């Protein structure tokens, strides 16, 4: 039966979080999630919300289970739309009414009306859950259009909705074309075919092979994907504890650390999580938190370029990987290059995005030095403040096309990932990077990609990097973001180019 939830938005948010988490949650964590600012007594505020939920949830049997340390909801007998949607997607054979009910339920934003941007941790969780729900909706549309016996008239609106939700999916475009042809609308089918081809070309994606259909997008919600991560720890050469994660099956793909990383928050990120999860579909994707940030040891003596390279060596050795493709993003490109030169027998392919061979201090004019040093001072003094103005100085050039919500998320993420002193130390190290002398020694086949409108690292810098690496391919993508947004076409193009590059056989000398 339907129930009326309490009017308090925080109480409703607490209810939703406990339902979707589906496991006991520590009271301390719930207080940090929803009462991180405001009440003098967060535990008292939590108790008040639980008292309002109990009569609504229990209904004759105890479903709200709480003790001094943790809180949980027993979901037996409670219908959760997301859970029902997953069951509909997994059912064999597909049940039309179940798929239809799930699609209707997911047309509205997940937990509409529960946005609370001032509560950082809840905002991050909600953004990730909404992204996962949208991926689930795309998979449901795929299953409904492809698996259910519908008349062309009934299939048409759903085929359109599928292509609108997944505009670069060749299977969705083909289904819409075929449906229009069955209805005798040949001209409309040609328009769809031409529009899809133009969109793919403009995004920089390789054209789909004739007659092929794409596999459905993974519909696992982000917290389930997180559970699939295997997070472990190892020691660097100087004893610093490093956190690394492996996720996915297949041949390995290693990502060098960059600004900034957090194994748990990265995987739920509304910005780059879709990109990471696509890479994990084809590979055992290995990434790690650099010393001084994320889940790795924060209080470290050495934060320098040599330590960064040694950290990558330690993670690869701990993961037991022999030969692998290596991915570098931004300043992680220089770390990846240095590793590839030191260990040519282990790097099968080198993939670089938004990279540079020399930091800004190399050959900088006095004006540039003054400006950049001022930014480092601002970071050191104001990084930890709840006002994001100081971090925004760094963020603005990373993702100029980001929405206000995405920028807010990234500002929060940066503060949660690294402290002020380490953030400033990172910027000092990045300024002095110089791997120009070893570019000629790279032996691995190399793909260099760069955003055409990158405002952080100019396109010309990426071109110079590619020109100095023997035999490197250079690909530009239509974006002005230094950090790709998972929702933008260039992100899909990035993954497509990586897949195409890694599928090319490597001739061993």
Q: Distance N terminus to C terminus?
A: 69 Å
CATH topology of the largest domain: Rossmann fold
How many β-strand runs?
A: 11
Task: Pick out the low-confidence regions.
Answer: 209-227
* Total number of helices: 20
* Structural class by sheet pairing and helices: alpha/beta
Mean pLDDT over all positions? 86
Q: Strand order, biggest sheet?
A: 4-5-7-6-8-9-10-11
Please give the domain count: 3
Largest sheet data: 8 strands, mixed
The coarse silhouette is globular
How would you characterize this protein structure?
The chain has 509 residues and is an alpha/beta fold. It folds into three domains: 9-78, Arc Repressor Mutant, subunit A; 82-202; 229-357 and 434-502, Alpha/Beta hydrolase fold, catalytic domain (Rossmann fold), CATH 3.40.50.1820. 50% of the residues lie in helices and 11% in strands. It has helices spanning 9-21, 27-34, 42-58, 81-90, 96-105, 120-147, 152-165, 170-182, 186-202, 222-228, 263-267, 273-282, 305-319, 332-342, 366-382, 389-398, 404-417, 420-431, 459-468, 489-502; strands at 25-26, 64-66, 70-73, 230-235, 241-247, 252-255, 284-289, 324-329, 347-353, 446-451, 473-477. The strands form two sheets. It has an eight-stranded mixed beta sheet with strand order 4-5-7-6-8-9-10-11, sandwiched between helices. It has a three-stranded antiparallel beta sheet with strand order 1-3-2. Helix 19 (459-468) links the parallel strand 10 and strand 11. The radius of gyration is 25 Å and the shape is globular. The model is unreliable at 209-227 (pLDDT under 50).
């Amino acid at each position: 039966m339907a129930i009326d939830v309490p009017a308090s938005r925080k109480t409703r948010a607490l209810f939703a979080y406990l339902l979707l988490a589906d496991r006991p949650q520590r009271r301390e964590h719930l207080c940090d999630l929803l009462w991180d600012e405001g009440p003098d007594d967060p535990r008292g505020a939590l108790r008040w919300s639980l008292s309002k939920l109990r009569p609504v949830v229990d209904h004759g049997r105890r479903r709200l289970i709480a003790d001094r340390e943790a809180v949980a909801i027993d979901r037996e007998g409670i219908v959760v739309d997301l859970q029902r949607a997953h069951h509909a997607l997994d059912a064999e054979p597909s049940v039309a009414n179940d798929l239809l009910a799930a699609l209707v339920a997911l047309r509205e934003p997940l937990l509409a009306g529960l946005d609370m941007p001032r509560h950082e941790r809840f905002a991050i969780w909600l953004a990730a859950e909404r992204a996962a729900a949208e991926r689930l909706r795309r998979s449901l549309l795929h299953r409904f259009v492809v698996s259910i016996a519908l008349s062309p008239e009934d299939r048409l609106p759903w085929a359109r909705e599928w292509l609108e939700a997944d505009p670069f999916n060749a299977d969705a475009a083909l289904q819409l074309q075929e449906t229009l042809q069955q209805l005798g609308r040949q001209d409309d089918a040609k328009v769809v075919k031409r529009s899809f081809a133009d969109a793919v070309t403009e995004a920089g994606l390789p054209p789909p092979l004739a007659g092929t259909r794409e596999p459905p997008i993974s519909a696992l919600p982000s917290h389930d994907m997180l559970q699939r991560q295997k997070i472990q720890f190892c020691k660097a050469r100087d004893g610093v504890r490093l956190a690394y994660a492996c996720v996915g099956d297949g041949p390995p793909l290693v990502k060098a650390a960059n600004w900034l990383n957090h194994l748990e928050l990265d995987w739920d990120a509304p910005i780059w999580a879709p990109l990471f999860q696509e890479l994990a579909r084809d590979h055992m994707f290995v990434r790690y938190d650099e010393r001084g940030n994320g889940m790795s040891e924060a209080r470290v003596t050495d934060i320098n370029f040599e330590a960064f390279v040694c950290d990558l060596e330690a993670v690869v050795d701990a993961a037991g990987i022999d030969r692998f493709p290596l991915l570098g993003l931004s300043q992680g490109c220089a770390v990846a290059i240095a590793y590839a030169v030191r260990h040519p027998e282990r790097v099968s392919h080198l993939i670089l995005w938004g990279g540079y061979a020399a930091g800004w201090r190399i050959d900088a004019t006095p004006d540039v030095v003054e400006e950049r040093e001022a930014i480092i001072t601002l970071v050191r003094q104001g990084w930890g403040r709840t006002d994001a103005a100081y971090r925004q100085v760094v963020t603005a050039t990373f993702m100029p096309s980001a929405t206000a919500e995405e920028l807010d998320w990234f500002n929060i993420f940066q503060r949660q990932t690294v402290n002020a002193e380490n953030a400033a130390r990172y910027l000092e190290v990045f300024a002095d990077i110089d791997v120009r002398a070893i570019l000629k020694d790279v032996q691995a086949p190399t793909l260099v990609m760069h955003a055409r409108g990158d405002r952080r690292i100019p396109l010309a810098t990426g071109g110079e990097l590619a020109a100095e690496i023997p035999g490197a391919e250079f690909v530009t993508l239509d974006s002005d973001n230094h950090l790709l947004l998972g929702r933008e076409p260039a992100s899909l193009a990035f993954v497509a180019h990586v897949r195409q590059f890694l599928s090319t056989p490597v001739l061993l000398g």
